Amino acid sequence: MANTVLYDDGVHKNILLEDFSAGGLAVQANQHLIIHDRVGMILDPGGHKVYAKVLAETFSELSGGRLKYLFLSHQDPDIVAAINGWLMTTDADAYISSLWTRFVPHFGFDHIVADRLKPIPDEGMVFDLAGAKLYALPAHFLHSEGNFQLYDPISKILYSGDLGASIGIDYMVVRDFKAHLHYMEGFHRRYMAANRVMKAWADMVRQLDIEIIAPQHGALFPDPAMCRQFIDWCARLECGVDLITPTFKIPVG
Length: 253
Ligand SMILES: [Fe+2]
Ligand SMILES: [Fe+2]
Hints:
12 strands
């Protein structure tokens, strides 16, 4: 698969990088790049296995431009494991929930880059990418306690992180929502915290103009109707603490 351009108006470009992780033990993960006027933000750059390729691809897409931001939706290794490499080889600042800034350095951090890992406050923030505004939206407990999604109002793409993840598929675009549920349901029931949080998230994102929802794993939702279907499904889903208590039994030896 080659890089997929999700949006391009000549100044603003959204690129889904080629999948470099297929076929391994590690879970498949998508890396996204947003470029505005030759200034870039990479989202959830991933771990060591894909680091060299994602870095090379990022600079080839930037073609002489500069990487300004590393956006880290949460603290999982498939997102932040290679963060030291990214900070050492670029001038970009990395942003992650304030809950995780003191945990990420355990992945191994060179002193000289430590002050370039910056906190996103619980209420979220707005990034300025060469004049383009990008919104870090609170999506806590979906699944991480300190978790953000990124909304780009120019391309109208909502980068939803682990929410909307699908596992074990060989397509990158959802065409049949019902058939696709099979690849999302188990993950969302177990990883997402509770229906109450899903509903709050749905109420927030229904106010946005969304063309595409692009998760960090698996296929994306390619049009407004499909995005609405996905949001409605989330708002109804029982998950996490809604379902977990019956499994709290002493295991049989
Ligand atoms: Fe995660
Ligand atoms: Fe993930």
